[in-house]
Amino acid sequence: MRAIAVVVLSLAVPLLAACNPGGETKSSSGSSTSAAADSVHCDAKAWPLAMPDLRGQRLDAARAGDGACFLFASATAPDGRNVLDGQDNSAWVVKDQSPDPGALVAEKQPITVTVKPAGTK
User: Fold this and answer.
1) N or C end of the chain: smaller count of CB under 10 Å?
2) Which residue in 75, 85, 88 sits closest to 116, CA to CA?
3) Cis upstream peptide for 48 (omega within 30°)
4) Considering only CA atoms, which of 63, 67, 53, 38 is closest in space to residue 99?
5) What's the distance, CA 80 to chain centroid?
6) Measured at the alpha carbon of residue 41, what is the angle toward residues 63 and 101, in degrees to the nearest 5?
7) Are the beta carbons of 15 and 55 closer than 8 angstroms?
8) Is residue 110 a contact partner of residue 71, using CB atoms and an 8 Å limit?
9) What is the pTM (predicted TM-score) of this model?
10) pLDDT of 22-71, one tens digit each?
């Protein structure tokens, strides 16, 4: 029985790797990204970094590119729920943020934003 399990497992691992070449994963914004590339990109930064002004940006855009290096702890909607737990981050626009734009942010420092539905004032 063990020999069968080892054979099945030894065949399954290369098959799974072939189904996901490059180790790509889905980011929270729904786009396909390489987790390893994001890690190298962010690790190469000279921390602390100045916090960008995220206000007025769609949440998915704020969390992409260099924004992927920041630790978004929460994105609070008007009804109090954390929309980071949802699937469609493009439906939200950053209304306010903490820390403020320009503040120096440590590598693992939590970032919090409040959001409003896209298309509202």
Assistant:
1) C
2) 75
3) yes
4) 53
5) 20
6) 45
7) no
8) yes
9) 0.68
10) 443 344 444 445 566 667 789 899 999 999 999 999 999 999 999 999 99
Reported as a pLDDT band with limits 50, 70 and 90, residue 6 is very low
pLDDT on residue 10 = 46
Whose structure tokens read 């992927």? 68
List the one residue out of 84, 70, 86, 73 whose CA is nearest residue 112. Answer: 73
What span, in angstroms and rounded, lies between the C-alpha atoms of 62 and 79? Answer: 21
Which residue from 73, 66, 79, 68 is spatially nearest to 28, judged by alpha carbons? 68
Tokens encoding 20 = 């996901």
Instruction: Inform me whether the pLDDT recorded for 5 exceeds 60.
Output: no
Q: Which of 68, 37, 34 is nearest to 54 (CA)?
A: 68
